[in-house]
Specification:
With 151 residues, this protein is an alpha+beta fold. Helices cover 32% and strands 22% of the residues. The chain contains 3 helices and 8 strands, in the order H-H-H-E-E-E-E-E-E-E-E. Strand 4 and strand 5 form a beta hairpin. The longest helix is centred in the first third of the chain and has 21 residues.
């Protein structure tokens, strides 16, 4: 056992404290397993105790949040292909993707999006949403975007 046995950090090559703790932990585990033996009632009692501890920690409100967050939600994609126009996406969407598919530069959110480049915005967590994002395809000839939003 020589993990972390560096001359530049920690105990400067002395790994004894780490090794001792690992060995003590393994011995404790062995002792506990020997005490249980083949008595399945003891195992059931330990599992029941662990389940009770978990139940005491989890409140009904916490369980509701967990249940709500595991429910799948269907999102609707919307597509737009502006060329020679400007505007902005609708606020309150869950994600937006911009792809510059024209021959000229487009502007998205105040920055230049060159032909072939893409930008993706995701609100993150389950119920987060994005604010509106401005775009402009009028400043350069040939600028064209494909915009996909999820609502």
């Amino acid at each position: 056992m020589s993990i972390g046995n560096l001359k530049t950090e920690g105990n400067k090559g002395n790994n004894f404290p780490f090794q001792l703790k690992v060995l003590q932990g393994l011995q404790c585990t062995c002792d506990e397993l020997k005490a249980i033996g083949i008595d399945t009632a003891a195992i059931e009692a330990i599992l029941t105790s662990i389940a009770a501890d978990i139940a005491n920690l989890a409140t009904e409100a916490t369980l509701q949040v967990i249940e709500t967050n595991t429910t799948g939600v269907s999102r609707t994609p919307t597509f737009a292909r502006p060329a020679g126009s400007n505007g902005s996406t609708t606020a309150g969407v869950y994600s937006v993707s911009f792809a510059s598919v024209g021959t000229g530069n487009a502007i998205v959110g105040g920055i230049i999006l060159k032909p072939g480049e893409t930008l993706n915005f995701d609100a993150g967590a389950l119920n987060n949403t994005l604010t509106s994002i401005a775009y402009d395809t009028t400043t350069n000839a040939g600028a064209e975007l494909i915009i996909i939003t999820l609502t």
